Amino acid sequence: MANILLVEDDTTFAQMLTFFVEKHGHKVQSAQRIKDAFKLQQQHTYQLILLDYRLPDGTGLDLLTQIRETGSAIPVIIMTSFNDVRTAIRAIRSGASEYITKPVNPDELLMVMNEALADKKPADTKSDTKHPQFIRGNSPYADKLHEYINLVAPTDMAVLVQGESGTGKEYVARMIHQNSKRADKPFIAIDCGALSRDLAASELFGHAKGAFTGAAADKKGLFESADDGTLFMDEIGNLSYDVQVKLLRALQEKVIQPLGSNRTIPVNVRIIAATNDDLLNSISADSFRQDLYHRVNEFKIQLSPLRERGNELDNFIRHFIQLSNAELGRQVQNISPEAMEVLHRYDWPGNLRELKNVIKRMVLLTTGETAGAAALPDEMLWSTPPDQTPIAASPESDLKARNEVNEKALIQKTLQQVKYNKSKAAKLLNIDRKTLYSKMERYGL
Ligand SMILES: Nc1ncnc2c1ncn2[C@@H]1O[C@H](COP(=O)(O)OP(=O)(O)OP(=O)(O)O)[C@@H](O)[C@H]1O
To answer: Which candidate, 212, 253, 290, 378, has a CA 20 to 30 Å from the CA of 144?
Structure first.
Protein backbone atom coordinates (compact mmCIF):
# COMPACT_ATOMS: atom_id res chain seq x y z
CA MET A 1 0.00 0.00 0.00
CA ALA A 2 1.26 3.47 -0.85
CA ASN A 3 0.27 6.91 0.33
CA ILE A 4 -0.58 8.94 -2.71
CA LEU A 5 -1.11 12.67 -3.09
CA LEU A 6 -3.56 13.52 -5.84
CA VAL A 7 -3.47 17.10 -7.12
CA GLU A 8 -6.48 17.67 -9.36
CA ASP A 9 -8.98 20.53 -9.54
CA ASP A 10 -11.69 18.63 -11.42
CA THR A 11 -13.53 17.30 -8.37
CA THR A 12 -15.60 14.69 -10.20
CA PHE A 13 -12.53 13.25 -11.84
CA ALA A 14 -10.60 13.42 -8.55
CA GLN A 15 -13.32 11.40 -6.83
CA MET A 16 -13.35 8.78 -9.55
CA LEU A 17 -9.61 8.51 -9.46
CA THR A 18 -9.50 8.28 -5.67
CA PHE A 19 -12.07 5.50 -5.75
CA PHE A 20 -10.13 3.60 -8.39
CA VAL A 21 -6.73 3.97 -6.73
CA GLU A 22 -8.09 3.09 -3.27
CA LYS A 23 -9.73 0.02 -4.75
CA HIS A 24 -6.23 -1.08 -5.64
CA GLY A 25 -5.11 -0.88 -2.05
CA HIS A 26 -3.58 2.60 -1.82
CA LYS A 27 -4.44 5.58 0.33
CA VAL A 28 -5.19 8.89 -1.35
CA GLN A 29 -5.17 12.43 -0.08
CA SER A 30 -6.11 15.16 -2.49
CA ALA A 31 -5.59 18.84 -3.08
CA GLN A 32 -6.97 21.14 -5.74
CA ARG A 33 -4.38 23.89 -5.69
CA ILE A 34 -0.60 24.03 -5.80
CA LYS A 35 -0.41 25.95 -2.54
CA ASP A 36 -2.38 23.29 -0.61
CA ALA A 37 -0.60 20.41 -2.30
CA PHE A 38 2.81 21.81 -1.39
CA LYS A 39 1.72 22.20 2.23
CA LEU A 40 0.43 18.64 2.37
CA GLN A 41 3.62 17.35 0.81
CA GLN A 42 5.66 19.13 3.49
CA GLN A 43 3.54 17.74 6.31
CA HIS A 44 3.05 14.10 5.24
CA THR A 45 5.04 11.30 3.74
CA TYR A 46 3.83 10.18 0.34
CA GLN A 47 5.27 7.60 -1.99
CA LEU A 48 3.79 9.06 -5.17
CA ILE A 49 2.18 12.22 -6.49
CA LEU A 50 -0.46 12.20 -9.24
CA LEU A 51 -0.37 15.71 -10.57
CA ASP A 52 -2.74 17.42 -12.96
CA TYR A 53 -0.97 19.77 -15.36
CA ARG A 54 -3.40 22.68 -15.40
CA LEU A 55 -4.33 23.92 -11.95
CA PRO A 56 -6.14 27.06 -10.81
CA ASP A 57 -3.01 28.68 -9.33
CA GLY A 58 -0.39 27.58 -11.87
CA THR A 59 0.82 24.48 -13.66
CA GLY A 60 1.86 21.09 -12.35
CA LEU A 61 5.35 22.01 -13.46
CA ASP A 62 5.45 24.83 -10.89
CA LEU A 63 4.61 22.42 -8.09
CA LEU A 64 7.08 19.87 -9.40
CA THR A 65 9.85 22.50 -9.37
CA GLN A 66 8.96 23.56 -5.81
CA ILE A 67 9.05 19.94 -4.64
CA ARG A 68 12.36 19.19 -6.35
CA GLU A 69 13.85 22.38 -4.84
CA THR A 70 13.29 20.84 -1.42
CA GLY A 71 15.51 17.94 -2.48
CA SER A 72 12.61 15.47 -2.56
CA ALA A 73 12.93 12.68 -5.13
CA ILE A 74 9.34 11.44 -4.78
CA PRO A 75 8.01 10.00 -8.06
CA VAL A 76 5.56 12.35 -9.76
CA ILE A 77 3.20 11.38 -12.57
CA ILE A 78 1.87 14.31 -14.57
CA MET A 79 -1.66 13.94 -15.93
CA THR A 80 -2.27 16.11 -18.89
CA SER A 81 -4.67 16.79 -21.70
CA PHE A 82 -3.33 15.89 -25.07
CA ASN A 83 -2.89 19.56 -25.96
CA ASP A 84 -0.28 19.86 -23.26
CA VAL A 85 1.78 16.81 -24.14
CA ARG A 86 4.65 18.96 -25.36
CA THR A 87 4.91 20.68 -22.00
CA ALA A 88 4.37 17.47 -20.07
CA ILE A 89 7.32 16.00 -21.86
CA ARG A 90 9.38 18.92 -20.68
CA ALA A 91 8.14 18.09 -17.20
CA ILE A 92 9.91 14.77 -17.51
CA ARG A 93 13.10 16.72 -17.95
CA SER A 94 12.27 18.63 -14.77
CA GLY A 95 12.09 15.46 -12.79
CA ALA A 96 8.63 13.96 -13.38
CA SER A 97 8.69 10.18 -13.55
CA GLU A 98 6.15 9.86 -16.31
CA TYR A 99 3.19 11.59 -17.92
CA ILE A 100 -0.17 10.16 -18.78
CA THR A 101 -2.77 11.70 -21.06
CA LYS A 102 -6.37 12.44 -20.18
CA PRO A 103 -8.90 10.92 -20.40
CA VAL A 104 -6.95 8.58 -18.18
CA ASN A 105 -7.16 4.91 -19.02
CA PRO A 106 -7.34 2.97 -15.72
CA ASP A 107 -5.10 0.07 -16.83
CA GLU A 108 -2.52 2.46 -18.16
CA LEU A 109 -2.60 4.51 -14.97
CA LEU A 110 -2.10 1.40 -12.88
CA MET A 111 0.84 0.31 -15.00
CA VAL A 112 2.53 3.71 -14.81
CA MET A 113 1.84 3.96 -11.05
CA ASN A 114 3.27 0.53 -10.34
CA GLU A 115 6.37 1.37 -12.35
CA ALA A 116 6.85 4.61 -10.49
CA LEU A 117 6.25 3.00 -7.09
CA ALA A 118 8.70 0.21 -7.86
CA ASP A 119 11.10 2.94 -9.03
CA LYS A 120 11.37 1.02 -12.22
CA LYS A 121 12.21 3.61 -14.84
CA PRO A 122 10.11 2.99 -17.93
CA ALA A 123 12.62 0.91 -19.90
CA ASP A 124 14.89 3.80 -20.51
CA THR A 125 18.31 4.74 -21.71
CA LYS A 126 19.68 4.32 -18.21
CA SER A 127 20.83 0.79 -19.03
CA ASP A 128 23.45 -0.68 -21.30
CA THR A 129 23.18 0.42 -24.95
CA LYS A 130 23.93 -3.14 -26.08
CA HIS A 131 20.58 -4.14 -24.62
CA PRO A 132 18.17 -4.95 -27.46
CA GLN A 133 15.81 -2.26 -26.27
CA PHE A 134 17.60 0.05 -28.71
CA ILE A 135 17.68 -0.17 -32.47
CA ARG A 136 20.17 1.42 -34.77
CA GLY A 137 17.58 2.31 -37.40
CA ASN A 138 17.78 1.58 -41.07
CA SER A 139 17.64 4.75 -43.15
CA PRO A 140 20.01 7.32 -44.66
CA TYR A 141 19.39 9.39 -41.49
CA ALA A 142 20.41 6.53 -39.18
CA ASP A 143 23.46 5.81 -41.36
CA LYS A 144 24.67 9.41 -41.14
CA LEU A 145 24.01 9.57 -37.40
CA HIS A 146 26.02 6.44 -36.70
CA GLU A 147 28.77 7.59 -39.02
CA TYR A 148 29.12 10.74 -36.87
CA ILE A 149 28.97 8.74 -33.66
CA ASN A 150 31.70 6.39 -34.87
CA LEU A 151 33.87 9.25 -36.06
CA VAL A 152 33.74 11.32 -32.91
CA ALA A 153 33.58 8.53 -30.30
CA PRO A 154 37.30 7.59 -30.25
CA THR A 155 38.39 11.24 -29.90
CA ASP A 156 38.22 13.24 -26.70
CA MET A 157 36.23 16.03 -28.34
CA ALA A 158 33.37 17.62 -26.44
CA VAL A 159 30.12 16.87 -28.26
CA LEU A 160 26.95 18.93 -28.30
CA VAL A 161 23.83 16.92 -29.16
CA GLN A 162 20.94 19.11 -30.19
CA GLY A 163 17.37 17.99 -30.82
CA GLU A 164 13.80 18.16 -29.62
CA SER A 165 12.78 16.38 -26.46
CA GLY A 166 12.73 12.61 -26.82
CA THR A 167 14.71 12.43 -30.07
CA GLY A 168 17.35 10.18 -28.50
CA LYS A 169 20.03 12.60 -27.30
CA GLU A 170 20.91 10.51 -24.27
CA TYR A 171 20.98 7.40 -26.44
CA VAL A 172 23.52 9.12 -28.72
CA ALA A 173 25.63 10.18 -25.72
CA ARG A 174 25.73 6.61 -24.43
CA MET A 175 26.66 5.27 -27.86
CA ILE A 176 29.55 7.73 -28.05
CA HIS A 177 30.73 6.65 -24.60
CA GLN A 178 30.39 2.95 -25.39
CA ASN A 179 32.46 3.36 -28.53
CA SER A 180 35.16 5.46 -26.87
CA LYS A 181 38.37 4.59 -25.05
CA ARG A 182 36.50 5.44 -21.89
CA ALA A 183 33.88 2.71 -22.35
CA ASP A 184 34.87 0.79 -19.22
CA LYS A 185 34.96 3.98 -17.11
CA PRO A 186 31.90 5.72 -15.66
CA PHE A 187 29.19 7.31 -17.77
CA ILE A 188 27.35 9.77 -15.59
CA ALA A 189 24.20 11.48 -16.81
CA ILE A 190 23.05 14.65 -15.15
CA ASP A 191 19.93 16.59 -15.95
CA CYS A 192 20.91 20.22 -15.55
CA GLY A 193 17.23 21.19 -15.86
CA ALA A 194 16.39 19.28 -12.69
CA LEU A 195 19.30 20.63 -10.63
CA SER A 196 18.22 23.07 -8.00
CA ARG A 197 19.82 26.48 -8.49
CA ASP A 198 21.40 26.46 -5.04
CA LEU A 199 22.77 22.96 -5.17
CA ALA A 200 23.97 22.76 -8.79
CA ALA A 201 27.58 23.77 -8.07
CA SER A 202 27.84 21.37 -5.15
CA GLU A 203 26.32 18.53 -7.21
CA LEU A 204 28.82 19.10 -10.00
CA PHE A 205 31.98 19.98 -8.09
CA GLY A 206 31.31 18.66 -4.58
CA HIS A 207 31.64 20.54 -1.31
CA ALA A 208 33.65 20.55 1.87
CA LYS A 209 32.06 19.94 5.24
CA GLY A 210 30.54 23.18 6.53
CA ALA A 211 30.63 24.91 3.11
CA PHE A 212 26.99 25.93 3.64
CA THR A 213 24.18 25.18 6.06
CA GLY A 214 23.37 21.53 5.71
CA ALA A 215 26.79 20.51 4.37
CA ALA A 216 27.38 18.05 7.21
CA ALA A 217 30.21 16.15 5.53
CA ASP A 218 32.53 16.38 2.54
CA LYS A 219 30.71 15.46 -0.66
CA LYS A 220 32.20 14.25 -3.91
CA GLY A 221 30.84 16.01 -7.00
CA LEU A 222 29.76 14.40 -10.26
CA PHE A 223 32.88 15.61 -12.05
CA GLU A 224 35.03 13.62 -9.66
CA SER A 225 32.75 10.59 -9.92
CA ALA A 226 33.03 10.71 -13.71
CA ASP A 227 36.83 10.95 -13.62
CA ASP A 228 38.38 9.20 -16.66
CA GLY A 229 34.88 8.67 -18.04
CA THR A 230 32.10 10.73 -19.63
CA LEU A 231 29.78 13.29 -18.09
CA PHE A 232 26.53 13.71 -20.00
CA MET A 233 25.05 17.13 -19.22
CA ASP A 234 21.47 17.15 -20.43
CA GLU A 235 19.72 20.52 -20.84
CA ILE A 236 23.00 22.36 -20.36
CA GLY A 237 21.28 25.63 -21.27
CA ASN A 238 19.56 25.56 -17.87
CA LEU A 239 22.74 26.06 -15.85
CA SER A 240 22.92 29.34 -14.01
CA TYR A 241 25.51 31.89 -15.09
CA ASP A 242 27.65 31.28 -11.95
CA VAL A 243 27.78 27.58 -12.56
CA GLN A 244 28.64 28.17 -16.22
CA VAL A 245 31.69 30.14 -15.09
CA LYS A 246 32.80 27.28 -12.82
CA LEU A 247 32.14 24.73 -15.55
CA LEU A 248 34.21 26.67 -18.05
CA ARG A 249 37.11 26.74 -15.62
CA ALA A 250 36.81 22.99 -15.01
CA LEU A 251 36.91 22.35 -18.75
CA GLN A 252 39.74 24.75 -19.51
CA GLU A 253 42.01 23.96 -16.61
CA LYS A 254 40.91 20.36 -16.05
CA VAL A 255 40.67 20.96 -12.32
CA ILE A 256 37.72 21.41 -10.01
CA GLN A 257 37.44 23.08 -6.67
CA PRO A 258 34.80 21.78 -4.28
CA LEU A 259 32.65 24.48 -2.65
CA GLY A 260 34.18 25.80 0.56
CA SER A 261 37.51 24.10 -0.07
CA ASN A 262 40.93 25.46 -1.08
CA ARG A 263 41.83 22.16 -2.63
CA THR A 264 41.89 21.81 -6.42
CA ILE A 265 41.37 18.33 -7.81
CA PRO A 266 42.61 17.35 -11.28
CA VAL A 267 39.91 15.70 -13.38
CA ASN A 268 39.90 14.03 -16.77
CA VAL A 269 36.30 14.09 -17.95
CA ARG A 270 34.84 14.06 -21.42
CA ILE A 271 31.77 16.24 -21.74
CA ILE A 272 28.78 15.44 -23.89
CA ALA A 273 26.17 18.15 -23.59
CA ALA A 274 22.61 18.12 -24.85
CA THR A 275 20.08 20.81 -25.48
CA ASN A 276 16.52 21.18 -26.72
CA ASP A 277 16.97 24.84 -27.55
CA ASP A 278 19.25 26.56 -29.94
CA LEU A 279 21.97 27.77 -27.57
CA LEU A 280 22.84 30.57 -30.02
CA ASN A 281 19.54 32.20 -29.03
CA SER A 282 20.50 31.85 -25.37
CA ILE A 283 23.84 33.49 -26.16
CA SER A 284 22.05 36.42 -27.82
CA ALA A 285 19.79 36.68 -24.78
CA ASP A 286 22.88 36.69 -22.53
CA SER A 287 21.76 33.58 -20.67
CA PHE A 288 24.49 31.31 -22.02
CA ARG A 289 28.18 32.15 -22.23
CA GLN A 290 29.64 32.15 -25.70
CA ASP A 291 33.05 30.88 -24.50
CA LEU A 292 31.38 27.91 -22.80
CA TYR A 293 29.37 27.24 -25.95
CA HIS A 294 32.55 26.89 -27.99
CA ARG A 295 34.06 24.63 -25.33
CA VAL A 296 31.16 22.17 -25.33
CA ASN A 297 30.52 22.41 -29.05
CA GLU A 298 33.73 20.98 -30.49
CA PHE A 299 31.50 18.67 -32.53
CA LYS A 300 27.76 19.07 -32.98
CA ILE A 301 25.24 16.33 -33.68
CA GLN A 302 21.81 17.54 -34.69
CA LEU A 303 18.96 15.06 -34.24
CA SER A 304 15.87 15.33 -36.41
CA PRO A 305 12.37 15.14 -34.98
CA LEU A 306 10.59 11.84 -35.54
CA ARG A 307 8.04 13.42 -37.91
CA GLU A 308 10.90 14.16 -40.31
CA ARG A 309 12.49 10.73 -40.19
CA GLY A 310 10.36 9.10 -42.90
CA ASN A 311 10.21 5.31 -42.72
CA GLU A 312 12.08 5.26 -39.39
CA LEU A 313 8.66 5.61 -37.76
CA ASP A 314 7.62 2.14 -38.92
CA ASN A 315 10.86 0.61 -37.65
CA PHE A 316 10.37 2.15 -34.24
CA ILE A 317 6.70 1.11 -34.12
CA ARG A 318 7.68 -2.53 -34.77
CA HIS A 319 10.51 -2.33 -32.25
CA PHE A 320 8.38 -0.81 -29.48
CA ILE A 321 5.64 -3.41 -30.09
CA GLN A 322 8.15 -6.19 -29.48
CA LEU A 323 9.57 -4.46 -26.39
CA SER A 324 6.10 -3.92 -24.94
CA ASN A 325 5.00 -7.48 -25.75
CA ALA A 326 7.97 -8.79 -23.78
CA GLU A 327 7.35 -6.44 -20.88
CA LEU A 328 3.58 -6.86 -20.65
CA GLY A 329 3.20 -10.47 -21.74
CA ARG A 330 1.16 -9.63 -24.86
CA GLN A 331 1.24 -11.07 -28.39
CA VAL A 332 0.54 -8.06 -30.56
CA GLN A 333 1.84 -8.64 -34.06
CA ASN A 334 0.42 -5.76 -36.03
CA ILE A 335 -1.52 -2.53 -35.99
CA SER A 336 -4.78 -2.02 -37.85
CA PRO A 337 -4.66 0.15 -40.99
CA GLU A 338 -6.82 2.91 -39.36
CA ALA A 339 -4.59 3.07 -36.28
CA MET A 340 -1.52 3.05 -38.51
CA GLU A 341 -2.94 5.99 -40.45
CA VAL A 342 -3.34 7.98 -37.24
CA LEU A 343 0.20 7.12 -36.14
CA HIS A 344 1.48 8.34 -39.51
CA ARG A 345 -0.55 11.56 -39.51
CA TYR A 346 0.36 12.58 -35.97
CA ASP A 347 3.28 14.99 -35.53
CA TRP A 348 4.92 13.43 -32.43
CA PRO A 349 5.95 16.46 -30.38
CA GLY A 350 7.44 14.09 -27.77
CA ASN A 351 9.26 12.09 -30.44
CA LEU A 352 10.54 8.60 -29.56
CA ARG A 353 9.55 8.87 -25.92
CA GLU A 354 5.97 9.67 -26.84
CA LEU A 355 5.85 6.96 -29.52
CA LYS A 356 7.19 4.40 -27.05
CA ASN A 357 4.51 5.35 -24.52
CA VAL A 358 1.69 5.32 -27.07
CA ILE A 359 2.71 1.89 -28.40
CA LYS A 360 3.08 0.51 -24.88
CA ARG A 361 -0.41 1.71 -24.08
CA MET A 362 -1.79 0.13 -27.26
CA VAL A 363 -0.11 -3.16 -26.47
CA LEU A 364 -1.38 -3.07 -22.89
CA LEU A 365 -4.94 -2.60 -24.11
CA THR A 366 -4.75 -5.28 -26.81
CA THR A 367 -5.28 -8.89 -25.84
CA GLY A 368 -5.25 -10.25 -29.41
CA GLU A 369 -2.75 -9.91 -32.22
CA THR A 370 -3.94 -6.67 -33.80
CA ALA A 371 -3.91 -3.33 -32.02
CA GLY A 372 -6.70 -1.09 -33.32
CA ALA A 373 -7.51 2.60 -33.21
CA ALA A 374 -9.55 2.08 -30.03
CA ALA A 375 -6.30 1.47 -28.16
CA LEU A 376 -4.95 4.89 -29.13
CA PRO A 377 -5.39 7.77 -26.70
CA ASP A 378 -8.76 9.33 -27.63
CA GLU A 379 -7.34 12.77 -28.05
CA MET A 380 -4.77 11.52 -30.47
CA LEU A 381 -7.63 10.64 -32.77
CA TRP A 382 -9.08 14.11 -32.36
CA SER A 383 -5.80 15.86 -32.88
CA THR A 384 -5.34 14.22 -36.25
CA PRO A 385 -8.67 14.59 -38.04
CA PRO A 386 -8.89 13.13 -41.53
CA ASP A 387 -7.94 15.61 -44.21
CA GLN A 388 -11.36 15.97 -45.79
CA THR A 389 -13.47 18.14 -43.49
CA PRO A 390 -16.97 18.19 -44.96
CA ILE A 391 -17.92 21.24 -42.90
CA ALA A 392 -15.40 23.55 -44.53
CA ALA A 393 -16.33 22.25 -47.97
CA SER A 394 -20.04 23.00 -47.57
CA PRO A 395 -21.58 25.94 -49.44
CA GLU A 396 -22.50 29.12 -47.55
CA SER A 397 -26.22 28.43 -47.98
CA ASP A 398 -26.07 25.03 -46.25
CA LEU A 399 -27.82 25.75 -42.92
CA LYS A 400 -26.72 22.50 -41.26
CA ALA A 401 -23.10 23.16 -42.09
CA ARG A 402 -23.34 26.76 -40.84
CA ASN A 403 -24.75 25.52 -37.54
CA GLU A 404 -21.96 23.04 -37.22
CA VAL A 405 -19.36 25.73 -37.79
CA ASN A 406 -20.94 27.81 -35.02
CA GLU A 407 -21.21 24.82 -32.72
CA LYS A 408 -17.55 23.92 -33.27
CA ALA A 409 -16.46 27.50 -32.56
CA LEU A 410 -18.54 27.62 -29.35
CA ILE A 411 -17.17 24.32 -28.07
CA GLN A 412 -13.63 25.42 -28.87
CA LYS A 413 -14.09 28.75 -27.09
CA THR A 414 -15.65 27.10 -24.04
CA LEU A 415 -12.90 24.51 -23.82
CA GLN A 416 -10.27 27.23 -23.89
CA GLN A 417 -12.18 29.23 -21.31
CA VAL A 418 -12.18 26.31 -18.83
CA LYS A 419 -8.67 25.21 -19.75
CA TYR A 420 -9.89 21.99 -21.31
CA ASN A 421 -11.67 20.78 -18.17
CA LYS A 422 -14.30 18.74 -19.95
CA SER A 423 -16.68 18.41 -17.00
CA LYS A 424 -16.82 22.17 -16.68
CA ALA A 425 -17.12 22.65 -20.43
CA ALA A 426 -20.00 20.17 -20.66
CA LYS A 427 -21.77 21.94 -17.80
CA LEU A 428 -21.40 25.37 -19.42
CA LEU A 429 -22.56 24.05 -22.78
CA ASN A 430 -25.47 22.30 -21.09
CA ILE A 431 -24.66 18.89 -22.58
CA ASP A 432 -23.38 15.71 -20.96
CA ARG A 433 -19.71 14.71 -21.06
CA LYS A 434 -20.31 11.90 -23.50
CA THR A 435 -21.98 14.22 -26.00
CA LEU A 436 -19.13 16.66 -25.58
CA TYR A 437 -16.58 13.93 -26.29
CA SER A 438 -18.38 12.79 -29.41
CA LYS A 439 -18.73 16.37 -30.69
CA MET A 440 -15.04 17.02 -30.01
CA GLU A 441 -14.21 13.92 -31.95
CA ARG A 442 -16.49 14.95 -34.81
CA TYR A 443 -14.95 18.42 -35.05
CA GLY A 444 -11.39 17.23 -34.52
CA LEU A 445 -10.95 19.34 -31.37
N1 LIG B 1 17.66 4.10 -31.01
C2 LIG B 1 16.68 3.89 -30.14
N3 LIG B 1 16.06 2.70 -30.08
C4 LIG B 1 15.04 2.47 -29.23
N5 LIG B 1 14.61 3.38 -28.36
C6 LIG B 1 15.19 4.59 -28.35
C7 LIG B 1 16.26 4.92 -29.24
N8 LIG B 1 16.64 6.19 -28.99
C9 LIG B 1 15.87 6.64 -28.00
N10 LIG B 1 14.99 5.69 -27.62
C11 LIG B 1 13.96 5.79 -26.58
O12 LIG B 1 13.33 7.06 -26.69
C13 LIG B 1 13.18 7.67 -25.42
C14 LIG B 1 13.85 9.03 -25.44
O15 LIG B 1 15.26 8.85 -25.63
P16 LIG B 1 16.34 9.80 -24.96
O17 LIG B 1 16.12 9.90 -23.47
O18 LIG B 1 17.68 9.39 -25.44
O19 LIG B 1 15.90 11.20 -25.62
P20 LIG B 1 16.39 12.66 -25.26
O21 LIG B 1 16.45 13.42 -26.54
O22 LIG B 1 17.63 12.60 -24.43
O23 LIG B 1 15.17 13.19 -24.41
P24 LIG B 1 15.11 14.54 -23.52
O25 LIG B 1 15.29 15.71 -24.44
O26 LIG B 1 13.74 14.50 -22.98
O27 LIG B 1 16.20 14.42 -22.53
C28 LIG B 1 13.77 6.72 -24.40
O29 LIG B 1 12.72 6.01 -23.80
C30 LIG B 1 14.64 5.79 -25.21
O31 LIG B 1 14.63 4.51 -24.64
So the answer is: 290
